UniProtKB/TrEMBL annotation:
Family according to the record: Belongs to the TrpC family.
Residue stretches making up the Indole-3-glycerol phosphate synthase domain: 5-255
GO process annotations (BP): L-tryptophan biosynthetic process
HAMAP family: IGPS_B (MF_00134_B)
Keyword hit for Transferase: no
Listed name of the protein: Indole-3-glycerol phosphate synthase
Gene3D superfamilies according to UniProt: Aldolase class I
Pathway connected to this protein: Amino-acid biosynthesis; L-tryptophan biosynthesis; L-tryptophan from chorismate: step 4/5
Family annotation (SUPFAM superfamilies): Ribulose-phoshate binding barrel
GO molecular function: indole-3-glycerol-phosphate synthase activity; phosphoribosylanthranilate isomerase activity
Keyword annotations: Amino-acid biosynthesis, Aromatic amino acid biosynthesis, Decarboxylase, Lyase, Tryptophan biosynthesis
Record-listed E.C. numbers: 4.1.1.48
Species the sequence originates in: Knoellia locipacati
Amino acid sequence: MSTVLDAIVAGVREDLAVRTEQVSQSDLERRVADLPAAIDAEQRLRAPGLSLIAEVKRASPSKGHLAEIADPASLASTYADAGATAISVLTEQRRFHGTLADLDSVRAAVSVPVLRKDFMVTDYQLWEARAHGADIILLIVASLTDDELARMHALAHELGMTALVEVHDEGETQRAVDAGASVIGVNARNLKTLEVHRDTFSRLVPLIPPGVVKVAESGVAGAADAALYAVQGADAVLVGEALVSGADPAAAVREIVAAGAGS
Ligand SMILES: O=C(O)c1ccccc1NCC(=O)[C@H](O)[C@H](O)COP(=O)(O)O
């Protein structure tokens, strides 16, 4: 049976086919060669306390329209100035209404690490991410074979980027560990059904070896959830909806950062 994730990935592949006609991988490789090195995001996420990866998110399959974000750079600067460790930028167009132009403008606006949040299924997208200034890429275990995961994880490191390897169940966690992931994100949202279960992190965290950076993703409603994840062993939380749909994103960031520091 086809899942939400399958449908998203099918759309991503169609859009990718158009972009690869417009810009070759060789062009991207030339652009990457001229860029300054990526920021070591893994090291930043390892810093003591709970880090916040704050997301620029206009819409989602689960909630539809979330926020009118006319100026992603301004929102990203607000996040960074309020204490976010890194910025996540959704670049998938069809369901999240994100673009690579969003990534460009956020990259130009902030000096903290930037995550290209998308559904990575080919090496081309990693070159594209780096060419557009990303320091972190997302690898969703559920949408990759073991060979793809290993190859793309290695390529991310060759390009100097941090790979955030995302899991949602025990089997995926084992596959991430076997692939040598040094940063694992536990997504509370099941990308096949869109259900959110906040106990997913506490269930899977014992399977993640010490020394691996642990990121709790999705469904963080505010400071209380972040504090609980910190107590359960999270090094970072990735938050989208709660930041973009609230009246005061800067205050929301400050509250989450303070809650993480105090737990
Ligand atoms: O957000 C969704 O509905 C979604 C659906 C299918 C695939 C991915 C999806 N979201 C991507 C994310 O990982 C989240 O944007 C991120 O973890 C932040 O989640 P939240 O704080 O719940 O907005």
